[in-house]
């Protein structure tokens, strides 16, 4: 973040914020999830939900904090430096208190013979990865474009600055409450309705042309989309049939690897398909069914709907298979 304080060229931001922070955050985020999953067998989803909810909580604090700092005499540069040193302190504490419960593996083959090859032969798990990939391909588009959508529809500029903050605040509860329910009803039984509801809420965005409408969308979408983000990793436990929890690390790593490409390409594709016309107000159903509008109209939100609904369909297809494998409806 220190490199962001005095950027002189675009490639500096790309290398530091895109490549550098991407690698660093990935190396911290994935181990924190895996280590947490090793300590819990009964309340695993709830525990991992609290880990993921921290990012939403930060999404509430940081925009407000930085806006206040930037508007004062500190300015942009010292505001970024201050946040960078604050992050450093938190990360040092987090890394010092994390402890692994299981001993490190001496090879890629664990005590039960689980390897990348055996995981890749697990068809239901691969379908789950595909489903989550499709969901994550479009689920974050509202987080990036809600402010633009609100501004183009005449929503107060002061409010639009806090639209994402409201969504992140709702996501704090969305990343904990559904996970709590997942421990009782099963992660897949929660992630499927969450995906369908999130997709349906996007249709409501076309009617959100006021402060009240944008606020309601931000609250509900932040909650249900937060459930998708937080349950994606705990749901991997539904595919583990043996007792060795070290298999979770391989599976969560493979899931995260695929999601990296979804997050890398989803938002840029949506932005390119949105075009300069930005015809958000035209009904999506009318554009898709009747083919009256130009193909470029509403294509961004159409892509979002297709990917989220497509991911939901993949989850529904594997639901029966995993239920038969586990011998229980709690999957």
TrEMBL record:
Keyword Transmembrane helix (UniProt): yes
Domain of life assignment: Eukaryota
Cellular localisation: Membrane
Main location as per UniProt: membrane
What is a GO molecular function of this protein?
transmembrane transporter activity
Keywords assigned: Membrane, Transmembrane, Transmembrane helix
- Secretion signal span: none
Gene Ontology terms, cellular component aspect? membrane
Residues crossing the lipid bilayer are: 20-40, 47-66, 78-98, 125-147, 159-178, 190-212, 218-240, 252-274, 301-319
UniProt membrane topology term:
Multi-pass membrane protein
> What's one Pfam family the UniProt record gives for this protein?
MFS_1
Q: Which PANTHER family does this one have?
A: MFS-TYPE TRANSPORTER DBAD-RELATED, MONOCARBOXYLATE TRANSPORTER
Q: Which family does it belong to?
A: Belongs to the major facilitator superfamily. Monocarboxylate porter (TC 2.A.1.13) family.
Protein name from the UniProt record: Major facilitator superfamily domain-containing protein
Q: Which organism is it from?
A: Gymnopilus junonius (Spectacular rustgill mushroom)
């Amino acid at each position: 973040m220190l490199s962001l304080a005095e950027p002189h060229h675009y490639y500096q931001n790309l290398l530091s914020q895109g490549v550098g922070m991407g690698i660093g955050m990935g190396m911290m985020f994935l181990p924190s999830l895996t280590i947490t999953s090793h300590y819990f067998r009964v309340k695993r989803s709830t525990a991992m939900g609290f880990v993921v909810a921290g990012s939403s909580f930060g999404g509430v604090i940081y925009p407000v904090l930085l806006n206040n700092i930037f508007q004062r005499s500190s300015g942009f540069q010292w505001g970024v430096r201050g946040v960078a040193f604050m992050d450093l302190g938190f990360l040092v504490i987090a890394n010092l208190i994390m402890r692994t419960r299981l001993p490190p593996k001496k090879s890629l083959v664990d005590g039960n013979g689980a390897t990348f090859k055996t995981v890749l032969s697990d068809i239901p798990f691969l379908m789950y990865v595909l489903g989550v990939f499709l969901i994550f391909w479009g689920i974050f588009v509202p987080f990036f474009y809600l402010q633009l959508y609100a501004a183009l529809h005449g929503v107060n500029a002061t409010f639009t600055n806090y639209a994402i903050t409201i969504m992140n605040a709702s996501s704090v509860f969305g990343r904990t409450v559904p996970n709590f329910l997942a421990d009782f009803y099963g992660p897949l039984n929660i992630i499927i309705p969450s995906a369908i509801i999130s997709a349906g809420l996007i249709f409501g965005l076309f009617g959100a042309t006021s402060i009240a409408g944008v606020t309601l969308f931000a609250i509900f979408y932040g909650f249900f989309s937060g459930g998708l983000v937080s349950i994606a990793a705990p749901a991997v436990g539904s595919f583990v049939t043996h007792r060795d929890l070290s298999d979770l690390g391989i599976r969560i790593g493979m899931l995260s690897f695929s999601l990296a490409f979804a997050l890398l390409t989803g938002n840029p594709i949506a932005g390119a398909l949105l075009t300069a016309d930005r015809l958000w107000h035209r009904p999506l159903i009318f554009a898709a069914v009747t083919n009256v509008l130009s193909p470029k109209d509403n294509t961004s939100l159409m892509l979002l709907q297709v990917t989220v609904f497509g991911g939901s369909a993949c989850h529904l297809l594997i639901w029966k298979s995993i239920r038969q494998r586990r011998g229980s409806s709690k999957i």
